[in-house]
Fold this sequence. Notes:
- There is one protein chain.
- This protein is α+β, with helices and mostly antiparallel strands.
- It contains four helices and 14 strands.
- A hairpin with a 5-residue loop joins strand 7 and strand 8 (176-185).
- Strands 1, 2, 3, 4, 5, 6, 7, 8, 9, 10, 11, 12, 13 and 14 form a 14-stranded mixed β-sheet that branches.
Amino acid sequence: MSRTAKKWAKRLGLFLVGGVSLLLLMFALLQTATAKTWLAERLSKTFSSGGERTVRIEGISGCLPFAMRTARVSVRDADGEWLTVEDIDSALSVRPLLRCRLVIPGLHIARLHLARLPASGDAPPAPSASGPSLRVPGIELQALRIDQLQIGESLLGTAGSFRVDAGVRISSGLRQLETQVTLTEGRRSSIRAQADFNRLTGGLRIESTLQATPGGFLAALVSLPGEESLRASLSGDGSLNAWEGWITVHAPSLVRVDGTIGWTVDQDIAARFSGQIDPL
């Protein structure tokens, strides 16, 4: 090896060692209490919007960014606090990042309280159609668990508390979306849904079930009388432009529905139903 080549190899080695050392130093600084407090304050300011929306993030801890815990996140507007999230634990896989994929093995939330919808002025601005086109990386949220999803009475007219289990997978470039979610209210109510969408083929598959028993949130929401229960399901395949599925709804002494349901999109959107609807 020539003297010049050795000189450049030495410089390259020093550059790599310096870069790795800098990354290790930044990682170490990120684990300090001061850095975590600064990060919470910075994120709070970033997500806030003047007097219309105030976001407060508190108690960031853990091994950032791969295992982070946040004690509390609250969002308020001019009418007060409308969203509270407590005890958030998240994990991030390292290896998929090298392939430009974001994989979150688990996201656990102890309590999410949605008291009401925000004031109309608090809605985020719609994205500009003339803005730059962003390439979305592959994202996979393998497991989302919310121990308590609390819905305020002012939102739907009755209060409810659910457990949520879900998962989401988005391929790079939004080519494919797969999602499944389950909401359970003890043994009184349950909602299960799964949807798969392929942007390249336009294919859309939906599977969902709903069950409500007396004393639960869903029963109160649809005003089921006495000891009545409700069962419903929807499943089907198709595309965003032409989808068709089978729907059933059974609520003794109220209604029974069995039939096909679907839509087509041409210049207009046309919905259709073919089957039987029997008020009981």
